[in-house]
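Q: Hi! First time doing this. I have a protein sequence and I read that you can turn it into a structure. Is that right? Here it is:
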Amino acid sequence: MAYQFDFLSTFDYGDVIVKGVLTTIELIAIGGVLGIAVGIFGAWARTQGPAWLKPIVSGYVEIIRNTPFLVQLFFIFFGLPSLNIHISEIQAAILAMVINLGAYSTEIIRAGVQAVSKGQIEAALSLSMSRMQIFRYIILRPALQKIWPALSSQVVIVMLGSAVCSQIAVEELSFAANFIQGRNFRAFEAYIVATLIYLVLAILLRQLLRLIGQYFITARRNA
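A: Yes, that's right. Below is the predicted 3D structure, encoded as structure tokens:
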């Protein structure tokens, strides 16, 4: 018999889908901002920071970039309670996303920092600016302008990777799809809807990040 599509049965669980979308947005909103902040600190530490901090940050970056995100998530959610550190499912998901994005964005931002003209840095040093002032006012913005497309792509990748957070019962979009197909046994329709929503979210997020990037460029030119 030919398969009969029934997408309406999926949208009967519209409230579950909406909750999943909102949770996914919450994860990437918090995880994205904090992850980029960690990346900026990591890039500073590896290029301008004290000598003792550089190997620590380098080790963190190598560990995170060479281990699966799912394992990192499980380590945080199931491993930390062994150290008497108890956090909720969504807190574990956000922490895992921050740590993961922070490691990747550290290397991306570091590449931008290293591309900044040494002449600008030397001019700032001649004005007796501190290393922190130089990084904040002279290096950071030009560096972000250079690497913003790559950083934006990494944020989108992390947002899509949040789908595995359903493995620890975070009620995001993939959790919603699993829940729906478990109720109506319409796996094809449930996952097609989830896929299309992820596609829309990725496109919207990329456009939002592009607008933020344009803001940095505009601000730089008007400075």
